[in-house]
Design a protein that fits this description.
By secondary structure, the chain is mainly alpha-helical. The protein contains 11 helices and 3 strands. It has a 3-stranded antiparallel beta sheet with strand order 1-3-2. β2 and β3 form a beta hairpin.
Amino acid sequence: MAELTELADDRALLGRTSTAERVSDILRSRIAEGFFPPGTRLSEDSIGGALGVSRNTLREAFRLLTHERLLVHELNRGVFVRVLTVEDVEDIYRTRALVECAVVRGLGDPPYGVEGLAAAVAEGRRAAAESDWKGVSTANIHFHRALVALAGSARTDEVMRSVFAELRLAFHVVDDPRRLHEPYLARNHEILRTLQEGARDTAEHLLAAYLADSLEGLVEVYARRVADGGQGTG
C-alpha cells in the first residue's frame, strides 16, 4: 500500500533507539495529519513492518495513544483510531477555553513574544491562497499551540498537545473544511494584532468569543455527519 510505503519513510525518525515514545510521536503526527482517519483499524503487522519495530514496542505505543484518547481498543477486533462523539468535542472546547483564556489572562505586562503567532497567521494565509484548507486547519492548530506556549509551561504544552491532536480527529470528519476554517484566518490575525498592541484583556475577550463560535460551528456540522453515518468503523 502507498500509505505504508510513506509510513516506512518515518523509520529514520526512530534513530538507533526505537522507543515506544518515538513510535507514538510518529503515529500521533500521522493521525493528526489524517493519514489514519477516524475509525481506521491499525494493523500491528503492517505498521510494525513499515516502521521496523517489534510488536511489543508497537503495542506500548498503541497503549500510550489510547491513554491520550486518540486510539481505542475493541475486544476481539483490534485497535482503531477513535471516533469522537459530540460530547467529546464539547469537552475538548471546554478544556481549550479554560486553558487558552487563562494563558492570555496571565500574560503580564507587554510586549509579548508573539513571533510564533505571527508565523502561524502567515502560514494560514499562504495555505488559503493555494486553497489548501487542510493546510489552513494545520496552521490554525499551530496558532493555538503558539498561543499556549506563551505561558512558558512545558506541562501545559504537553496537555494541550494531546487536546489539539484529539480535536483534529473531529476536523477530519468535516466534509467542508473551507467553511469551517476560513473565517478564523481573520480572527487569528485580530488576536495577534491586539497582543502586538499589548491589549491583553481585549485579546482574551476575542479569544473567548472565537472559541464559542468555533464550537458552535463544529458541533453543527459534526453532529450532522454523525447522524449521516459519515465516519468510519469504530
